[in-house]
Amino acid sequence: MTPPDQEIPSGRPGVAPQAPDQEATKAAFFEAFGGVRGMVETTVPGLVFVLSYTINRDIKISAVAALTISALLAVGRLIQRDTVKHAFSGVFGVAFGAAFAMMSGDAKNFYLPGMLYTLGLGIAYVATAAAGVPLLGLILGPVFREMLSWRTRNPGRKAAYVKASYVWGAILLAKSAITFPIYFWGDATQLGWLRVALGIPPFLLAVYLTWIILVKAPAPIDVIAEMEAEERAQKEREAARAAEAATEQGP
Question: Is the Transmembrane helix keyword given for this protein (predicted)?
């Protein structure tokens, strides 16, 4: 008998969940969250800003320096014909922060858009998990070629996505709980170095815990493979009907 946690979910007959190549899947999984390069592009502009502001206490110079670094990183992606989404998402975030800081005259506001984004994303993870449509499943479904099949055909995997979404929500909300008090009652230098310190480690923790949860979950249903198999079967049926019609017509 198949163990309960490895049951084949109901779905199209003759097509079982496909366990993807582990190394390729790990690479795609990590890249879905931006990869190593994404972590660098997220961290470096903030690091440049806080270093510059610590030295010269000039908001404009620091903001322009951070924005310039972010733009150069984006140009590097474009030159290498990388994903446009990754190329511009960091620039927009840094640009908003730079604008907030210069318009308000408060260096702490450079970090405010990112902090609000983190808070909103943490709430979204928790809310979607509670609603039974976990955000992590929507993000990773295409990565594992399962799309939204986990919602109705793979309950064990849906439960894993719910659990992992709660993990992401908890980590992001904990990060917000640490940074917002410093925003309100600390100074810009303290906030800047704290943001840098809390950039990569929580992200790596969330990715690691998510991978551990998904490794123990039922395998994804490869709906792309299903569609390809159906297309091949349809072509074979059409070829068989054409051959049968030609035989009936005779010479």
Answer: yes
Q: What integer is the mean pLDDT of 38-46?
A: 83
Helix spans in 105-154 (H): 112-130, 135-140
Count of CA atoms in the C-beta half-sphere (13 A) of 3: 6
Contacts of 67 (CB under 8 A, 6+ apart): 45, 91, 94, 95, 98
Residue spans per domain, the chain: 21-112+166-214
Q: What percent of the chain has pLDDT over 70?
A: 80
What confidence tens digit (pLDDT) does each residue in 211-226 have?
A: 899 888 888 888 887 7
Ordered DSSP codes for 39-90: HHHHHHHHHHHHHHHHHH--HHHHHHHHHHHHHHHHHHHHHTT--HHHHHHH
